[in-house]
Amino acid sequence: MEFKLGVVLESFELEFEKALTKASELELDGIQMYATKGTTTPENMSSSDRKALLDLVHSKGLIFSALCGDFSQGGFGDKEKNRILIEKSKRIVDLALDLETKIVTTHIGVVPEDINDEKYKIMQEACGELCQYAETKGAKFAVETGPETAESLKKFLDSLGGKGVAVNFDPANFMMARGEDPVKGVYTLKDYIVHTHAKDGVPGARGKDSPLGTGQVDFDAYLAALADIGYNGFLTIEREAGDRRVTDITNGVAFLRDKISRNNAFNNKGD
Q1: What DSSP string describes 101-115?
Q2: d(CA 232, CA 3)
Q3: pLDDT of res. 264
Q4: What CATH number is associated with residue 66?
Q5: Tens digits of per-residue pLDDT, 171-186?
Q6: 242: exposed, middle or buried (C-beta count within 10 Å: 0-12, 13-18, 19+)?
Q7: Residue spans of beta strands (DSSP E) within the chain
Q8: How many domains, in total, are found in the chain?
Q9: Which of the four pLDDT bands, split at 50, 70 and 90, describes residue 206?
């Protein structure tokens, strides 16, 4: 298994440079940061600001795994708001490219089961425009998983007619929101997965993830499934709950490294 390890910088709940230093101390490969608030939004970052930020990240031995372009859990279900959200999302793609990543993760909202639902059509139109823009830039909008079944999300993505909108796979969200098997989700969405969040949880605990290794996600099976579909990108740790964030993330890094090492040792036994 050849995975890169990263962290959502805001998960540390530290000041930006302290969080960056902690990611470097943990010898991670990369970071993800929010680009929808504060000083790191596209409108608040000049060309020189972007270069300075990229140089700072590189000086710590890190790269950007992705940017987070999530404006709200409501996503793109409101036609009146979509014009502004779409344009803001496009600017985040531009920022991502300046920071040398091609991936922007986001929530698009809950995809309705009924394809004739008016909200379905509104979301389809908005995501279709984002899909086209991302493709022209060689980038990806990576949709967070969990609000709907893997099958429903795949059908929606298939309907967009391109691969500019892809998937940021989060195994805990499947577990917490729907009790769905993350491994099954990996195989269903295998053609779209471009980034993943490493997160743990238990069924029904929506919005209250568990420290890595303490929930019910079967990481042996999950990581094996990712390897089986040929995914070799980032496992980016995201911690959204708890008051021991640095400790939880530090332990999570060790947990993932151990799982990857053990699985590699098992897979190499027959060599």
Answers
A1: --EEEE---PPPS-T
A2: 5
A3: 67
A4: 3.20.20.150
A5: 998 888 777 889 999 9
A6: middle
A7: 4-8, 30-34, 63-68, 103-106, 140-144, 165-169, 193-198, 234-237
A8: 1
A9: confident
